[in-house]
Amino acid sequence: MKKLFITLFLPLFVLCFCQKVELKAVTDSSQIFKGEIAGVPVTMQLHFAGIADCSLYQYFVDGWYYYDKYQKKIPLTGIYDYGKLSLYHFGNKQKQNSKLLKDQITSPQKVEKTAEIAEALNPKESITFTTDNPKENSITGNFYMDKKTQPAKLFTGNDMIYRYNNYLTLPNNKKINTFDFINKHGGNQLISYASGDNGNRILLYFEHSSNFNACGRCGASEGEKGYRILYFTKDWNYKNYEEFLTESCLENIYDTTETKSQDRKILKYKIKKSSSTAAYSLTVDIKNASVVKAK
User: Fold this and answer.
1) What residues contact residue 81 under an 8 Å CB cut-off, 6+ apart?
2) What distance lies between CA 174 and its chain's CA centroid?
3) For strand 40-51 and strand 74-81, is the pairing parallel, antiparallel, or unpaired?
4) I want to staple 166 with a disulfide (CB 3.0 to 4.6 A). Which of 26, 114, 178, 271 is the partner?
5) Can you give the pTM of this predicted structure?
6) What whole-number distance in Å separates Cα of residue 91 and Cα of residue 62?
7) Per-residue model confidence as pLDDT tens for the chain (295 residues)
């Protein structure tokens, strides 16, 4: 009977024991999109092909698309510009004209003239997508060929190709990506997690750039640093998060002092007054996955 009990409950014990929280950082430089052109299903793959100037919101892309029925790949090249995708197929001169296009786009001002520069190279086909409403689950655009215009669509709310993904694996076989609900910068590190009367909490430490545009404000800074608490229900459904800065170029927060308890489970920070924030202190309880902010 004892052996039967062990045999029956050991798998359950192993399953429960393995229900832990993990974070995995994955940088994507290629995306596959499903969509349609003139109502006909298509598949498109695009990959990051270098920054046009100094902003990670403006970069070259290369790839292909095909009509799902035929699956014959048609090569594409173009620009991702703050959510707008401009893609071109140059026929037999694809390789040659792709290089000419990239050689001429060397600044944000040139990026704005992408359509004009591309048209001078006589594309056989061109496709544009614009993220007018990022909350929608599709992105609309137009397909141009032989002086005719057809509607085009991508079945996604985000057409960004280069992505800093931080995947959190949760109990109950759940998985979320901080890229989707915090920001696009990634840089999160898992510190601890805990449960309470109101549900579950995850404590993250983060360090990331202040600005994807290296030529913009704080573009060359060491970035933003601090802690985040993610709140979940008891069955690990995501609710919301709080953010606590310890350093920030954007908020002019510098010269923060840190002290640690003897067991290093309690961290205390004193943040000085800045031009945009009043002075405050943070008490980070690693064991309980909590942060208390005080004046």
Assistant:
1) 57, 58, 111, 114
2) 19
3) unpaired
4) 178
5) 0.85
6) 14
7) 444 444 444 444 333 444 699 999 999 999 999 999 999 999 999 999 999 999 999 999 999 999 999 999 999 999 999 999 999 999 999 999 999 999 999 999 999 999 999 999 999 999 999 976 655 789 999 999 999 999 999 999 999 999 999 999 999 899 999 999 999 999 999 999 999 888 999 999 999 999 999 988 898 777 899 999 999 999 999 999 999 999 999 999 998 999 988 888 999 999 999 888 899 999 999 999 999 999 8
